[in-house]
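Two entries, shown back to back:
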Amino acid sequence: MSVGTAFHPRTAPLNRKLQWREWSGYYAASVYADHHDIEYNAIREAAALIDVSPLFKYKVSGPDSARLADRIITRDVGKLRVGRVYYTSWCDERGKVIDDGTVARLDEGTYRWTAADPSLRWFRQNAGGLDVEVEEITERLAALALQGPKSRDVLEAVTGETWSDLKYFGRRSSKIGRIEVDVSRTGYTGDLGYELWVDSAEAVQLWDAVMAAGQPFGARPAGMLALDVTRIEAGLILIEADFNSVRHAVIPDQAYSPFELGILGQLVDFNKPANFVGRRALEAEQRNGGPQRRLVGLELDWDGIERLHTAQGLPPNIPSAASRVPVPVFSGRRQVGKATSSTWSPTLKKAIALASLTASVAELDTRLSVEWTVEARRGSVDATVVDLPFFDPPRKRA
């Protein structure tokens, strides 16, 4: 049975259509407005508040906390300074991804860890022989994403502080009134944005303060439908859509190495002094030429979409909501992969998709085709392999 997050007393009255979805046992609003495009526009043109509290959250502390993190993640924890955040993945012994998430260093011996899937058992299994404590704090800690080009203005208005000095993937503590918050310059939209981490007991007061401060800047709440479009534009992967955790894989093709998942491969540090779970398997994979699959972006040809609709006597129509339904990708008549997430990009005015492709056809500018169905009649649309992310505004890092 799903339950509301700590922000539910505020998000529930705003969700007048009662459009909810389940996220890790919590209610998550699909959309608040009459249409999610309104919320998408807030993310891309103003500011939006997104309840991301259902993320699994862990506190790792103790004298050996850094050793535990180094034992698990693919990045070098020795380079993670206090006040910084890593995006990273962690793997099993075969080098297959269990999950991806963030690791924030709060002080010399304390880390805040987020994950999409439950990871407490895995962390504790790997803590054998270490002086470290791993606590799940998912229910105790609420999280509010403040995203969009005006998000810094809203944050400065509500805190009374300057935030232009907080670098991308940085974090620091602050206060909003008497509320203690931890602010990280992170997010899942590919835009300028922050995430506010707060004790669940203070969540409602935080929501009220940020909403009030955001009114002059056009801030509004945004749900999962708008978030899905923005994260695809940003080339950000989603578990159970663009990849499976190896723990849930029932066939080999459902298990992925970091090098098959775009940016995650770039975040594998073979120069780190510490061994990490899956390192030997990943080194062997690289010695053998790398994995046989790659994550890429695809831009779909509008003319092809229009042609398939015209053949059915229909005007061209693309759903405004993102799709997580995988569809085949072809080179000629040979299937070479699948498009995993796709959407119409209102900003780019293009149909785009994330795709897992055979490495031999994953080079930039390769011409392929994607299955496209109109009124139960299958056809195909030409597509071009492009670099990720699709949308990467300078303000994200400025």
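entry 2 starts here
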Amino acid sequence: MNQKNSIGLDKCFLDLKDPFELFKKWFEEAKKSEINDPNALALATSNKQGIPSVRMVLLKGFDENGFVFYTNLNSQKGNELKENPNASMCFHWKSLLRQIRIVGTLELVDDKVADNYYNSREYESRIGAWASKQSSILKSRNELLDRLKKFKEKFSDKEKVPRPSHWSGWNLKPSSIEFWLDGDNRIHERLKYDLNEKKVWVKSLLSP
């Protein structure tokens, strides 16, 4: 049985012109095999001085326009993205021995999109978006707990919790997407898609 595709990579890479289609197939496999949060990714940003920072966030949607996550816009990453919209994502699925690296630029999602996702969240999570001044220094844990209590009292009707203006989604529009498969003796398999000037995806094989 042939285990390779037309360019000599494992058949899991398939023979697709569209990296979003390949991402979707790998992501569906990860959802079946990863124990926790198959949608977890490392998000790397940097400020205007070029100092990088990285953290884990959760992918909440994707299509041919990009990859979406949500956050407090006044958090460290939110402030960095206002200064420098260039960012990178990395998915690592241990159960599949695969990685996907994505490079691109970020822009805010439409308010309607953010509203729809926000309203789909649990009540406690919606309250948390109001109460947490993400990345700011706390005098004590009780300061946060008091704010949670305050906003629960303010928004006691669980069906009527508006989205805070400081909380929304970012969409990363990719310029490159790289698919990586673990190989024996570190002879990994790597396939990279780059978006050229004509907005066409071009595939390249990379050395491990």
